[in-house]
Amino acid sequence: MPAHRYVRRFDEIDNDDVPLVGGKNASIGEMYRQLADQGVRVPDGFAVTAAGYRHVLDAAGAWPALREAFEGLHHDDVADLATRAARARGIVHGAGLPDDLAAEVLAGYRRLEEEYGAGVSVAVRSSATAEDLPDASFAGQHDSFLNVSGEADLLEAVRQCFASVFTDRGVHYRHRHGYDQLQVGLSVGVMKMVRSDRAAAGVLFTLDTESGFRDVVFLTSSYGLGENVVKGAVDPDEFYVHKPTFETGHRTVLRRRLGGKAIRMVLDDRGAGSTTRDEDTPDADRARFSLTDTEVLALTGTALAIERHYGRPMDIEWAKDGLDGLIYIVQARPETVTAAASTTVMERFVVESHGPLLSTGRSVGARIATGRARVIRSAEQLADFRPGEVLVSETTTPDWEPVMKTAAAVVTDRGGRTCHAAIIAREQGVPAVVGTGDGSTAIPDGTMVTVSCAEGDAGRVYRDEAAYRVEEIDVGALLRPRTRIMVNLGNPGLAFKTSFLPNDGVGLARMEFVFTESVRVHPMAALHPELVTDATERAAVERLVAGHADGGAYVVERLSEGIATIAAAFHPKPVVVRMSDFKSNEYATLLGGASFEPVEDNPMIGFRGASRYAHPAYAEGFALECRAMKRVRDDMGLTNVVLMIPFVRRLAEADLVLATMAEHGLGRGTNGLEIYAMCEIPNNVILVDEFARRFDGLSIGSNDLTQLTLGVDRDSDLVAFDYDERDPGVKRMIELAVEGCRRNGIHSGLCGQAPSDYPDMAQFLVELGIDSMSLNPDSLVSTTRAVLDLEMRLARADEPVLPAPHPA
């Protein structure tokens, strides 16, 4: 029997000690003992055991009074629950600390003083023995106290931690999850205080919290103490890092988003427990990221070490100390919601029509819900909330959980995707839109609304009930056909979720979608804002590119990270990225674009595609596109990206563009680069052998090929009756293109909508032996099944039904 009965140093505990010190402290001890040599830095400290908690109640004879306090508890009676919980807290706090327990706590503190200096400040944190277990996310139910210094204040903080086992939220949560109120013990962790109030803190997950995609680390960060990030009081910065390429030595951030970070929580440094306060974040700090890329990547390495050790996705809290400049891990627990979701049966929500947009924020959960909006501005109004309503508020706290679990959806003004509202919404399986900035004022109380989190990273709140459908897709046992079935995609925010659909990669990643959603500014306007004629637009361009070396650096960063997100989602499968294929009228809609684009009578067959790339009017813009794609492949390590040139009218044009790309470091074959061309102009078919010698593959754009073969403007409603992709002439063009590709040993594909809409068109392509079809996500599964059936009916049943190899 060790001399100390109720206190254990962190180097004396590990994951086997959950019954003794709770999940939080056991995990801290495990990392402190096992992972220090892998760069995981944990503040030193000790745990007051759950046996110490029971010793307090035993010594005071408090058990009968506690048992009586909870007899006949009804957890949905909020007033009754609050009364009983307050009574229980009073009983525990009034029990005091027995002398032997107090002596052990003070001995542990004095050891920390020897290590860190006299009067060292510590964080005193609760760790319930049912908390942080794999089957129940029990976080945030009990109290913690920060920057506690001195023996008397430490003992008082321990007493308050013990009493907090019976917070209202803790009692409710425990009751709902089937834990006996008196069987759950509480341990108290005491660790050196990390002064993140003078730096930054946040949360990271070793998967994407919305889709369950496991090949990324997702990190949030804001200035000050981490509590504001956890409870959703701030809109934090967000970062993604791709695990597979990180592990192969490519140290780059995959994607980032600058959060508002309007406030930061700091310590007052005035006595017991150093109360906290929120202060406005200086504008200069709000305008920059709260972590450097070097720090994000260091945290990624730490997170991967923790995940490897635990063997499962993890939810990790970190804090940067503003005094020593070091980053510490202060908590790690298994991620309990997204990791458990099925990846074989998928639900897909699709908005078909909707009312006016009321508010936009960050989406949590890829679902849609409708209900009457209930705007809650204070906890006192929670009694007015009715089940099935949409909870709208500035933010939420753990005390609101009994109401949140009855909501159809949640909308908050503040918070990121790792805040309290987001965590509870995921756990309950309801959509949430967080960080709207204006939801509680823009959404009228009592209005019927639709909350949509099914449209990518942006969550939207629409007035009235939207029309939408839900598709249930069983992808678990679907075989792969010999014809590769690829997906069309342009929105990086949908990439992780879409990657779970059965696919052989991305056959068409539309760069122009990334320009619209992520870059927003015309490349030439970013480079030359002084030439933007509209003063308001010029100011908007300058605001967007601020914080970057120049406008070009801004475009390269935003474009490369958008494309890289799609490439990472499907890695190592091929992702065919089409260089920008806006028409001049579409380019003009980008910020500042009207100052650089011509006005054309028929832009559909005007200044578009390859003709732009080496033209003086856009050569600098194309150079930025090339810089971005070189960064994706070379710096970020996503060599599964295949580049594709659209609308190549002539052989000389193809040669000029390929030479220009080579000048920008994107030569065919460099670092394994493949370059495709769109086959969408009759000349591409007529001269298919010559085009095939210049490219590694041709992807038939059936929309434009139909337009130009039949002479039908596909934007014109008047002649729509003449537009038919199944016309014999169009099909003959496709047949000649596929035959030409096969004859020259290059890849043949089709990325139009025809095989999705017309089963006979899919059969025609399979009969031709086309290498791949690329389809929109909504038709991916049905077309895959149809192609499998067709292949078998075409006497291929005797051949193995295996995935076709990726292009060499």
Major sheet summary line: 8 strands, parallel, barrel
Q: Class of the largest domain, according to the CATH hierarchy? A: Alpha Beta
Average of per-residue pLDDT values = 90
| Separation, N- and C-terminal Cα atoms | 66 Å
Total domain count:
4
Helix content: 25-40%
The share of residues in extended strands comes to 15-25%
How does the helix and strand content classify structurally? Answer: alpha/beta
The name of the CATH superfamily of the largest domain reads ATP-grasp fold, A domain
Task: Kindly describe this structure.
- This protein has 808 residues and is of the alpha/beta class.
- The chain folds into four domains: 7-193, ATP-grasp fold, A domain (Dna Ligase, domain 1); 197-339, D-amino Acid Aminotransferase, Chain A, domain 1; 343-472, Phosphohistidine domain (Glucose Oxidase, domain 1, 3-Layer(bba) Sandwich); 505-673, Alpha-Beta Barrel (TIM Barrel).
- The chain has 30 helices and 30 strands.
- The protein has an eight-stranded parallel barrel with strand order 23-24-25-26-27-28-29-30, surrounded by five helices. The chain has a seven-stranded mixed β-barrel with strand order 15-19-18-17-16-20-21.
- Strand 18, helix 13 (420-428) and strand 19 (432-434) form a beta-alpha-beta unit.
- 53% of the residues are buried.
Q: What would you say about this model in short?
A:
The protein has 30 helices and 30 strands. By secondary structure, the chain is an alpha/beta fold.
Keywords:
808 residues, alpha/beta, Dna Ligase, domain 1, D-amino Acid Aminotransferase, Chain A, domain 1, Glucose Oxidase, domain 1, eight-stranded parallel β-barrel, seven-stranded mixed beta barrel, 30 helices, disordered C terminus
